[in-house]
Amino acid sequence: MSWTPFSIGEIAQIHESYGRCLDAVPDLYGDFYDRLMASDPDIPQLFQNTDLQKQKQRLKHGILGLILYAEGHKFGPAAVENLGVMHDRHHANVAPRLYDIWIDTFLDLVAQADTRMTEELMILWQRVLRHGTREMARKF
Fold first, then answer.
1. What is the pLDDT of residue 1?
2. Phi, psi (deg, nearest 5) at residue 73
3. What's the pTM value of the predicted model, to 2 decimals?
4. What is the pLDDT of residues 38-60, one digit of tens each?
5. Based on C-alpha coordinates, what's the Rg of the chain?
6. How many CB atoms lie within 10 A of CB 105?
7. Treating both helix axes as pointing N-terminal to C-terminal, what angle do 76-87 and 52-71 enclose, rounded to 10 degrees?
8. Taking a C-beta distance cutoff of 8 angstroms, is the pair 46, 52 a contact?
9. 3-state SS, residue 10
10. Eight-state DSSP code of residue 128
């Protein structure tokens, strides 16, 4: 395990919340992309030639990668590095400003799906996701 600003208990809360979301929303990733596409006019063009079924799998792996990074897991840094490269200006060309929209969209869905959501848990989710997306943005 590498250094992390998050406690074991905090990471456990994120894993539990994510599990509740997956249980509550059968097509969590599809719902997310429906919301994301409607959130900003620049976003749909980023997915013009994208197989959304494959993209949903990438999203699943990406979220887990961000959680692993926050957890201090040995695979976390490589996961975030790969996400950063996949989204940089030479690949998917996702401007870092869109990361906040991505986070807000995902957290809106999490807030609705997790029946045990609290203000503290929402803040923790924000911290976990921003911890990784800040690193991703450095690759742009």
1. 72
2. -65, 150
3. 0.94
4. 999 999 999 999 999 999 999 99
5. 14
6. 21
7. 140
8. no
9. helix
10. H
Alpha carbon distances (Å) from 99 to 9, 24, 36: 26, 25, 11
Positive or negative: CA dihedral 106, 112, 31, 38: negative
Q: Which two tokens stand for residue 99?
A: 């990361």
As to burial, measured by CB atoms within 10 angstroms (0-12 exposed, 13-18 middle, 19+ buried), residue 14 is buried
Write out the two tokens for 46: 């980023």
Cβ–Cβ under 8 Å, residues 64 and 87: no
Angle at 102 between CA 101 and CA 104, to 5 degrees: 60
Tokens of 23: 């249980």
Do 132 and 72 form a contact (C-beta atoms < 8 A)?
Answer: no
pLDDT over threshold 80, residue 121: yes
Q: Which of 69, 61, 63, 67 is nearest to 3 (CA)?
A: 69
* pLDDT reported for residue 108: 98
The alpha helices in 40-139, defined as continuous H runs, are 43-46, 52-71, 76-87, 97-113, 119-137
